[in-house]
Amino acid sequence: MTLEIRAVDPVSRPAFAGVVTGVDLTRPLSAGTVAAIAAGMDRFAVLVFPDQLLDDAQQKAFAVNFGPLEQATGDLAQGAERRLAMDVNDISNLDREGRVLAREDRRRLFGLGNRLWHSDSSFKPTPAKYSALSARVIPAAGGNTEFADMRAAYDALDDATKAEVEGLVCEHSQLFSRATLGFDDFTEDERRRFAPVPQRLVRRHPVTGRRSLFLASHAGAIRGWPMPEARAFLRDLTEHATERRFVYAHVWRPWDLVMWDNRVTMHRARPFDAREVRDMHRVTVADVAPTLEQAA
Fold this sequence. Notes:
seven-stranded mixed beta sheet; 23% helix; globular
């Protein structure tokens, strides 16, 4: 097989979201294949790998080609409550026994935060580099995932706004994002675990040098700004960055694996019938350091 990457939308978004063919992710990858995928990520930021019948071990073996895996410390279910291993995020509506969560279950309500625009693990001191999400069971309709290109969104800012965002530091926490939905059912341990962390608002890609906005629903404050002004400003930036011209909507098929670069994208899940199963497994590659320690 020969690896090939082509743009999903070569007319409107020629450099955002690519489809990868000619590779079997269930098998070990050569150094050349890993390098080609990494180059594809640098160009497209979102890559779709159709028909990859992965188990969790194979999915993790694929992801570690690109760096160390995160632990799923951002999930509510911890320890014996978890359905999956600690290095696999359970992006599903299922409990440990594989039953669909009740509508009022706090784990389901917390998970509804995935429908807000976000970047994975921006609420951790060292946020995520890549996420790789495998679709095991999908609902009959809905449940798509939308991705927004934060590079293109930054490029489209006017010069005055580019000057204003330069050097700003935001505070990110799941306490902020869940409060947007009216969810405040946190234990004291969870409040400590989700304490706000600082992140640059503008990031520079270490390979391409392109600048991008580092936004998320987890961002609830700007250091040195009054809270109302900061939240209004972040809301305006998010509205700009998620205009349809910057967005690719992925319609899932069983056994799709989609990988994206959290440093230069936001994403959100879309609604589906809560009585149906949506079982997605995500492994997450950690970035190299906190954003404040990386080159501006």
